[in-house]
Structure formats: structure tokens, C-alpha cells
Amino acid sequence: MGSVNRTSAEQEIPISDYDLNYEAYGSEDALVEDIIRGLKIAGGCIIRNAFKQDTITSITEEIRPFMANTDAVDGDFWPKETRTLNGLVSKSETFTLKVVGSSMWHKVSDYFLTSTLRGHWNGQDQLTSVSKPQLNNTIAFRIGPGARDQAFHRDDIVHHTWNGAVDKYELGRDNGFTMFVACSPTTKANGATRFIPGSHLWDYSSPPPTDNSTAVYVEMKPGDCFMMLSSVYHGGSANTTTDDYRLIVATVSTRGYLRQEENQYLAHPPEKIKQLPMWLQKFVGYTISHPFAGYVDLGDPLIVLNPEAGDFVQAGY
Ligand SMILES: O=C(O)CCC(=O)C(=O)O
Ligand SMILES: [Fe+2]
């Protein structure tokens, strides 16, 4: 088992609330319920043993040739020792089917990010429109020796999210949801993601802490994962080793009517997307967000991608 390395004397939120073991659950729905509970309380939730070792090996092998060619990213959002790889949906089939396609992750994502516009008027008719979450981006992060702490931040700046303080989680606060999957061990020494439990409930005018004393370091073994609401303060941490590279892969979802952080239509050859199951093609972005958003010729973009599918695809809106 990995561990959660706490640097402060005692956290207010018991770790058992957000450190779960996939193998301890007889049903996925029971696990999903506890993940949702943990996320509401802490803003992040670890699920140990969520992915099989052969899945992790395949993902690591499939991204390896691309990863070898990545350069440091300009700017100071990441330290120069960090390498990122983007657009994983068309680079690793295993990642896409098992991680982006994880039913556990989708159930939680649907819970936090499905939008329902109830009772909008069309003349004297009142209608309800449901917009399901979509893919926001996919990315691998490898933190190399010598990297400094990444600054604490919230990922939901992408969608200009700005919330006030609440005592208890209120559905609707979030515009993004992430699952990080460990492909290498992640340790306090090699750059484990660290986060501030409870900070998803803070007023957004409050800055993040200036030190790591209240941070939880998400130490994981390959196959463990960490889910996180985009409203929680977090960041990669320093890699103080001389030879240990920390590798995680991430899938991120957002609300169906918001702009995707990574442009999925240009990031991937459409032929690659067509090879995915229809429901994943839709999730990647080839669908309508009701009402009206995303049409081509007033029809469903899934038809443009799969003309042969005909009536199978629900046309129009
Ligand atoms: O590398 C990590 O652990 C986290 C990276 C991250 O939060 C980001 O780049 O937005
Ligand atoms: Fe982040």
C-alpha cells in the first residue's frame, strides 16, 4: 500500500475519508458513492489498486516514444525538469479505453458536472435540457530530478471559475474534474502531487498557503489513482532525487457547454477517433450539448464522423 504523507501535525479531515481501496469494494457503485463523499469533504480522493498492472505497463509503453521527444514547456507554470505529453487520446489506445473510458471515473464525473437547465421557456412550453460532461484534456506529467515545487493553483481558472466560501460542498461549484493515474511510484521525494484538503470550499479571493505544512502528498503505487475537483489547490511537488522520474497520466472532464481546454478536433486525426466506441467519440466532443451547442448543419457531429452509422446516431436536436 502507498501512503499519504502529511507534513502538518494533524489535518482536520481524517485521511480515511478520502483514501480508499478499490479492492475493498464488492460493487463499483458503492465505491463511487464513497469517492463522491470523499471529494465533497476533501476536494480530492485517492483510490488504491484501481488499475491493473498490465494496463499501466501498456500505457507507459505506448506513450514512451512520444515522451522521449518532449521538451520543457516555456514559462514558469512547470519547472524546466517537467515534461508534459498532450493529446493522449490518439497516442495511447490503452489509456483512452481504460482511463478515459473508466466507468468509475465517468460515474463520478457525471455526478459533479452534468448540467440540467430546468424549465426554460419556448413560448408557453417549458422544456428541460441536460448537458453531459465532455473531455477537457488529457496529459502525461513526468517530473525529473531537480524540479522545484509547482506553485499551488486551481485548474478551474481555464473556465474563469470564481466561487465564494461554503461550509459544505454545493453541487454546481465545479467546472472540471481530474483523474491522475500513477504510472510510476509517486513519492514525496520524487514529486508526488500535493493538495490542500478542504480548499475547494474556500473563497477564491483567499490565496494558497505559502508553505507545504498543510499539504497532503499523494503517494501512490503504479495503478493507484487520485481524483480531484478542479476547485482544489494542488500542484506537482519538488523532485529531490537524483535519478527517479515520476510519471502520471491524467484525464480531465468539463461541462458539456464549455470550451474544451485542449482542442480535441485538431489534436487528433478524425480517423483515430472513429476507431473508438461511439460513446467515447461523443465524450471526446463529437456530440451535441443540449440545447443546440456543437451542431454541424443543425445535426449531430457524430453523423459527420460516422456517416455510415445513419439512424443509429440520433439526428438533430
Ligand atoms: O504534476 C502534477 O502532479 C500536477 C500537475 C498539475 O497540477 C498541472 O499541471 O496543472
Ligand atoms: Fe493542476
TrEMBL record:
One Pfam family hit: PhyH
Top-rank lineage group of the source organism: Eukaryota
Protein name per the record: Phytanoyl-CoA dioxygenase family protein
Organism: Aspergillus novoparasiticus
